[in-house]
Specification:
Layout lengths: L1 H11 L2 H275 L5 H27 L1
Helix pairs in contact: 2-3
Length: 322
Amino acid sequence: MDLEKSRERQAGEGCLVVALRMPVRIVALVLVVPVRMVWDALVVVGRFLHDRVLRPVGRALAWVGRAVFVWPFVALWRWVLVPLGVALRWLGTVLVVVPAGWLYRRVLTPVGHALAWLGQRLLVVPSVWLYRWVLTPVGHALAWCGRGLYALASLLVAGIATALYWTARVLLVWPAYAVWRWVLAPVGRVLAVVAREVGAALGHAWRVAGYVSLAVGRAIAAFFRWTVVEPARWVYRTVLTPVGHAVRDAVLRPVAQAARGVGRLTRDTLRGVRVTVRQVRQDVRRALLGDPKTPGEQGNHEVKGSVGVSDGRDDGILLTKR
């Protein structure tokens, strides 16, 4: 359907359009392909920079801006300016609004009423009389004269405007219309055809360059995958993974087990040393200060001490097992 429409459109076009189309499209394709490839490369680089660099940096800067500018001003507004404004409003109400309201009600309102009464008696009544018996007749006379002058001026302006209109039409409009109809319109049609074909050629070349750029990008991606990614994956899977497993089983696990054994032995030794030091301290205290307790209480104390020591050992064994 589209092919039939394109054939009908080409059949209805002139020879100038057909002669200009192919050379213009070839030149546009040669010029546009490098531009489109550079454009696609810049788009890829721009997306990478936007996702990996500009967006994190923008978030960090936004957080810093809020921490440096927004939060201090919010705190200043909330904890300093708002209470200060409330206090100033209260002071203004007490010191200005209340006295001003009292002055307006008690002083200015009676004075204003008195002045209004005196204005009405001294100004309004004479002004109404002057307007009714002096200004109104004079205004009617001036309006009648103005209407006559306006009619005369209208006639003069209409005559002058008519003469200027026909003069401008004969000297300007008709020559300009002739130039437009017989010179500019044909030239404009030719230029429109050329511009339309150039635009169509550029659009076609841009689409073809897009396909070419896509194919080149896919080829570069495949070359990079088969020369870098696949060998690296093979080396990681077949060399580094077995070597890592062997190092883990042969070196890291024995070292970890030995370290755990040394730590366990060290904890047991330190626990024994603490028990020995405690017993020595008790013996020295008993030798120097004597034992004030009864034999039964001393036996109970020794039993409790032995129970505490055994509990510490059991806790150490449980911690070692964990």
